[in-house]
Write a structure and sequence with these properties.
By secondary structure, the chain is an alpha+beta fold. The chain has helices at about 1-45, 50-65, 85-90, 95-115, 125-140, 150-175, 180-190, 200-210, 215-240, 240-260, 265-275, 280-295, 305-315, 325-335, 350-365, 375-380, 385-395, 410-415, 430-435, 445-450, 470-475, 475-485, 505, 535; strands at about 405, 455-460, 485, 495, 515, 525-530, 540-550, 560-565, 570-575, 585-595, 595-605, 610-615, 620, 625-630, 635.
Length: about 650
């Protein structure tokens, strides 16, 4: 009888062990599936939504890579470390937003690894669950507040995850687990935070203080020294110390508050409190902080000063408000989840069941299989070009520089052109600063634009925050526009006057003119090209033409030819493959530089196409774009620009 009971007990233990082992294997399999789906999600986020502040950072990095110095030749009020990865990406050949987001994605992976490797949580099942939860938040929730883009707030938030999970939380909860390398690296990263934004200086001081332990002073000093040294070397090589003081310190502290209304001092603490209680997500985060603080306080002797100051430091991340500026706060909370599981040594069988269910939920979330999830991301891809970028490519060479004001930084990226001024965006505080520049640092946009004389500019005359009109801060820029540029129709595009032989073409409005197709080309009927006027044909040498065709949404077979009659009477004939023509698009013809007075499209072996014409009260003109040998351009009034 006793043997039977023993056999039954052994059988149950063996069954429980097998079940436990099966759950463990299942957990790892699900973790692998989650990782694959998370990588897919991350790849999609590389092309998800353009953000002006991110484009600003990328354009500044491009200018640094071109040889210009940050703060003395390039205006920016973000910290210098912000531009390190951007400079590296530019130096190795990446130039688009997708490439600049790759280091952010890599830093996210590093932060997840830091959470998983943190000694605060010992049980592997819990480690996996916390890591998967953090990754799911990063992928599915943080993009709502631009947590996936390349900007200093994202970098700061991800660095804080590493700092907290691998250094500061250990120093409070399990200081015996700290190794010299962790102390040095932790303080290097802490020293980096103020070089992303000086507003992180109070937090950096707090983190250093709460993590300090007797016996680690020398490692702390080495870490801080290395962090400061490396950042100062970067600033010295690619920027200006005086400019850093002028734009990042002085302008942010003295000039910007005049416009933003955010005042330093006790007001910032009140802002942080108001934000922390402003909505459900922030209030829930506040509750989590109190719970974590309670758990951590139980590990300290006497008054839990380290825990209290740590929570104050994390709360200070809300001093500049919610949303984008509060992003590092929510990133920090992902690391603060670790103390919730500090006392758990091993997970029970029941816990593993819950873990499997939890991982399955996260898998469903990142799989994008739910209705509308995938479309939400794919429908908001970063555009490859804009209307203005097409105008830029037609008017300029790759070495030419442009301007996109007031705050249209993406246009530089889409156009693949550098700005014509160190003030590559222009807002009221830049004008205000120039009234009383500091430390010998001044970037005069009007002077630089006058010298560079860009061929095209985008000026949208933004009324900043519906309070500060264009005229209040950009009168000098407007004077340049009035003297040297002409506006294209009612669009915010300005073209240098000397590039337009007949300025009235650009000033002519579309009203009163309608688009109509010409007669259809066939073996009996040719299509005459109706030039704008004699000044187009006889007085200026042409070297390129663009003719807008209608193919009636079909592929037309056969050949045709463009025949241009030179002013000396000879003909130029250019072969056209009808099947290569696109409906409602311009077809461009590079031609020998010469004077041409008339033209037509004739059939050789096919037909079925027309040209588009702009029809007015007095005449009908073929939609043609003209490139002249002297660098000037011409357009047919009433026709699409592209």
């Amino acid at each position: 009888m006793g043997d039977d009971k023993k056999k039954l007990t052994d059988h149950r233990l063996f069954s429980n062990y097998r079940e436990y082992d099966t759950l463990k294997i299942l957990t790892y399999i699900l973790f692998f599936i989650f990782a694959i789906l998370a990588i897919r999600y991350q790849v999609l986020l590389l092309n998800y939504k353009e953000w002006g502040d991110e484009s600003e950072t990328i354009v500044a990095a491009k200018m640094i890579a071109s040889g210009m110095r940050l703060y003395s030749e390039i205006f920016n009020h973000h910290g210098p470390l912000t531009f390190l990865t951007g400079l590296l990406v530019e130096k190795i050949g990446g130039d688009g937003i997708r490439q600049h987001r790759l280091p952010i994605a890599a830093l996210q992976i590093c932060s997840i690894i830091a959470i998983y490797k943190s000694p605060i949580v010992r049980d592997k099942t819990l480690k996996i669950c916390i890591s998967i939860f953090a990754a799911t938040i990063m992928l599915a929730i943080m993009p709502i507040i631009w947590g996936h883009v390349y900007q200093y707030q994202t970098i700061a938030g991800l660095l804080l995850i590493i700092i907290l999970s691998q250094y500061v939380l250990l120093a409070i909860l399990v200081p015996v687990k700290l190794k010299p390398f962790q102390i040095v690296l932790g303080n290097v990263l802490i020293a980096c935070l103020p070089f992303l934004s000086i507003t992180y200086l109070p937090l950096s001081i707090i983190l250093c203080a709460v993590a300090f332990r007797r016996g680690s002073f020398s490692f702390l000093i080495v870490g801080i020294f290395l962090g400061l040294l490396l950042n100062c070397i970067f600033l010295g090589l690619f920027g200006s110390f005086e400019g850093y003081l002028a734009f990042h310190i002085y302008l942010n502290a003295k000039i910007l508050p005049i416009y933003s209304g955010v005042q330093p001092g006790t007001f910032l603490a009140l802002t942080a409190f108001n934000v922390a209680t402003s909505d459900f997500s922030h209030f829930l985060a506040l509750i989590i902080m109190f719970i974590v603080a309670g758990i951590m306080s139980s590990q300290e002797r006497g008054f839990p000063k380290r825990t209290v100051f740590l929570m104050i430091g994390v709360g200070s991340l809300l001093m500049r408000g919610a949303g984008l500026h509060g992003m590092p706060f929510f990133y920090s909370l992902l690391a603060l989840m670790l103390p919730l599981f500090f006392s758990r040594e091993h997970s029970s069988r029941q816990t593993k069941y819950v873990a499997v269910l939890f991982i399955l939920i996260c898998i469903v979330k990142v799989s994008l299989f739910l209705p509308g999830n995938l479309k939400q991301i794919t429908s908001k891809k970063i555009p490859l070009k804009t209307e203005f970028s097409e105008l830029v490519r037609e008017f300029t060479n790759p070495t030419d520089r442009i301007i996109a004001y007031s705050f249209n930084n993406f246009e530089y990226i889409a156009s693949d052109r550098l700005p014509a001024s160190g003030n590559f965006f222009y807002l009221p505080w830049q004008e205000k600063y120039n009234e009383n520049p500091k430390f010998g640092i001044q970037i005069d946009a009007c002077k630089e634009i006058s010298i560079a004389s860009p061929k095209v500019m985008l000026i949208n005359k933004w009324k900043v925050w519906d309070r500060f009109s264009w005229d209040s801060y950009a009168g000098c820029i407007q004077n340049i526009l009035d003297k040297k540029y002409v506006q294209y129709l009612d669009k915010p595009y300005y073209i240098r006057k000397d590039l337009m032989p007949v300025i009235e073409w650009l000033e002519a409005k579309d009203s009163g003119r309608t688009l109509t197709p010409s007669l259809m080309l066939n073996e009996f009927e040719s299509i005459p090209l109706k030039f704008v006027g004699s000044e187009i044909a006889g007085n200026k040498k042409l070297l390129r033409l663009g003719v807008m065709f209608a193919t009636y949404n079909r592929k037309n077979l056969g050949k045709a030819q463009l025949i241009l009659k030179r002013i000396n009477g000879s003909d130029l004939k250019v072969l056209i493959s009808l099947s290569d023509l696109e409906d409602n698009k311009y077809r461009y013809f590079s031609i020998p530089e010469d004077y041409y007075e008339t033209g037509l499209i004739s059939s050789l072996t096919g037909g079925g196409i027309s040209t588009w014409e702009s029809k007015g009260e007095k005449n009908s003109l073929t939609c043609i774009k003209y490139w002249y040998a002297d660098g000037s351009r011409g357009f047919t009034p009433g026709c699409p620009l592209f």
